[in-house]
Amino acid sequence: MKQRIITGVIAAVLFIGITLYGSWPFSLLILLLTGIGMYELLRMKGLEFSFIGGIGLLLAVLIALPQQWMQNLEPFTKTDAIILAVLLLLVVTVIQKNKTDYNHISFVLFSSIYVGFGFFYLEETRILENGIQILFLILFMIWATDSGAYFVGKSMGKRKLWPVISPNKTIEGAVGGIFFSLLVGIISYAVNFVELSLIHILVISVVAGIFGQIGDLAESAFKRIYDVKDSGTLLPGHGGILDRLDSALFVFPLLHVLHLLG
Question: TM spans, by residue (predicted)?
Answer without folding.
Answer: 6-34, 46-65, 77-95, 102-122, 134-152, 173-191, 197-215
